[in-house]
Amino acid sequence: MAAVRGDSFGRNARLARLAGSSISRRAWHEARRTFAAAPRRAELDAAHQLRTASEVATALGEMKGALMKLGQMASYLDEAMPAPMREALGSLQQDAPPMSAELTAQVVVAELGDAPERVFAEWDPEPLAAASIGQVHRAITHDGRAVAVKVQYPGVDQAIRSDLETTDLLFRAVGLLFPGLDPNVVVTELRTRLVEELDYRIEAANQQLFADWYRDHPFIHVPDVIAEFSTQRVLTTELASGSRFDEVVESWSAEEKNLAAETIFRFVFRGIYRIHAFNGDPHPGNYVFRPGGRVTFLDFGLVKRYAPEEVQLFEDLIVAMCLEHDIPRFRNLIEGAGILRLGAAISDDQVRDYFGHFYEFVLRDREVTFDAAYASGSVRQMFDLSSPTAEVARVANVPSAFVVTQRINLGLHAVLAKLDATANWRRIAEELWPFVAGPPSTRLGVEEAAWLAHAHPRARFPES
Q1: I need a surface site. Which of 62, 92, 186, 370 has the fewest CB within 10 A?
Q2: Based on the domain organization, do 380 and 270 belong to the same domain?
Q3: Among positive and negative, which fits the CA dihedral 143, 144, 150, 155?
């Protein structure tokens, strides 16, 4: 935990040592493979990738804070990253190195007034999950409720602020994880949004907003916050049970994976257009699955709440691109919003080719499969200035209101691609778009429509 509390100099030094070690090992590896036969070279390459990946993941996991968050993001965004690196960083999503039971107890005493074994009727000192900012423990309240208690790491707030103040540190970390990619957008997002996650009272309010809206939903579940056991550094919620993402990907049927993907899709876009809020951290560790498309959504530390004019812009862009295929109007809208430089020397066809990628799955009434190539293409559209669409990328911008929203194009596409999700996303989207309010197009759509008619009778129709 000294690494979590370390100052910016110490954390910079540690990452510099990591980079230096990586460079030295790479040089030694290249020297060894020069004199090896082809089969032996493949073995050496695999061993080198695995060792480097393990070292990077271990260092980021122990350092916690913004750097670990960056590793979590990288683990599922870039399909071009070597598999050992993705797998090692993927361990940060659910299996990050935990803090000791003694430190956990200290935080609970400071926040809730007594030792966890007395605050709760039962307390499991072994964490259920450990992530970038805190770790989660199982407990049972004295009135018999099974709960998940998220406890913030001591000193992680100072560590994150230190990371965010030292831009060079973040750029160096991005360079390790995304060689050749421009890190500006990722760094900007981290600097402007990550601090919000440090106050669990904000997260509690965000989570309860979604829990209240989705109460009694047939397949979407958001655990209620237990307010009497929640503070700035401790967040207690209902305990969720079910399968984790890796199990779904590896062993569930294609039909069940499609149902799970449809639920995630509905949750994301229903939130934007009806709740006017988006859970900005759509990564695999934030879902718990049960058969039949039932998904529990976790972690509401980074939620973007949209102003009505921002939602209206999203709707206008969809109408122009997907319903009317009016690229000149689409261009006028994004220029007005600051997404594209006014008067840039690019054609409307280039605008369609670049921005149309992000709407591809809802452009037409047809089945579409999210795959690794599409998800990786979404990342490269935004970051790779050597791609065929780079001319547009150089004159495109991500205004502050769109920074978190772009996680749809990164995180959500990556998650759905891992599930090989197949559906007629256009018809599902038309159910969710309030300016269309289409009829149910799937079994889940029928179930949701019945729930909406009872819980939110005006939710399927445009706001007055």
Answers
A1: 62
A2: yes
A3: positive
